[in-house]
Amino acid sequence: MASFSVRFLGCKVSYADTQAVRERLLGDGHTEVASGGDVAVVNTCCVTHEAISKSRQAATRAARSHAQVYVTGCGANLRGAFAAMPDNGYTDEGFSFPKSWYEALVARARGDGPTEKAAFARARVVVEKTVREQPEYAQALCILGMIDAGLGRPTEATREGQHAAELLPVSKESINGSLLMQYLAVIYTWIGERDLAFKQLAATAAIPSPLNYGELQLNPDWDSLRGDARFNKIISSLEPKDEPTIPTKQ
Predict the structure, then answer these.
(1) Where are the domains of the chain?
(2) Cα→Cα distances 28→53, 61, 72, 144, 238, Å
(3) How far is CA 202 from the centre of its chain?
(4) String of b and e for 3-31 (b: at least 16 CB within 10 Å)?
(5) Which CATH code, of 1.10.20, 2.10.260, 3.90.550, 1.25.40, is assigned to 85-240?
(6) Gap between the Cα atoms of 18 and 22, Å rounded
(7) Which pLDDT tens digits describe the chain residue by residue (250 residues)?
(8) Are 100 and 120 in contact (CB under 8 A)?
């Protein structure tokens, strides 16, 4: 019999699938451990950009530390997942990412440059139409900026990302405003403007925002910044701190 550990990412359906796998393994006499083990089961998700990134990282880490890795969930069959995904993709906090955006991210993660560029080009057609129709729609303009960064159009990407952040600052809307700041940092990173990327990341990390320790540790968007002392400093500033222990009265 083998020992196993399970890593779960995703929605309630994915969680139910994870529980079914766990119960089957336990029923067959295998032993679950908190970490390590002979076998790793990674139940993946590809609904959002962050979920794809975390799934990829979790599977990669598991392959380094386990003799066998089983990847399950929608991220294990991306063709099937993309077939089921609507063409208009998904909306996350007011950011509407088309299906082709996710196809580009997966190709980027695999190092498939031609497929990535083709998918970004398809995404650009969709998002550019939205921006033409709604020029003050900051979230769409920001997505267009990230797409242009992925297509190697640094001037357009910078202009679009910066203008999007100006249209919807944190003072006007805290969550979306901080996401625009974070995505502008992604743009700077993708076009190779490291100094601007670090400045933008530091500014985002200094305010309440969705940017967090796990995002910086796991998301491949930031891979080109790793190894720089400035990046390590920002990660350290977001590292979860242990809660102080309150002594109990005897």
Answers:
(1) 1-84, 85-240
(2) 32, 26, 19, 50, 41
(3) 18
(4) ebbbbbbbeeebeebbeebbeebeeeebe
(5) 1.25.40
(6) 6
(7) 678 888 777 665 666 777 777 788 888 888 888 776 778 888 777 666 566 667 767 776 776 667 677 777 766 666 655 666 677 777 777 888 998 998 888 788 778 899 999 999 999 999 999 999 999 999 999 999 999 999 999 999 999 999 999 999 999 999 999 999 999 999 999 999 999 999 999 999 999 998 888 788 777 889 899 999 999 999 999 987 755 445 555 4
(8) yes
Distance CA 225, CA 189 (A): 7
* Residue 25 structure tokens: 């393994």
pTM for the predicted model, two decimal places: 0.70
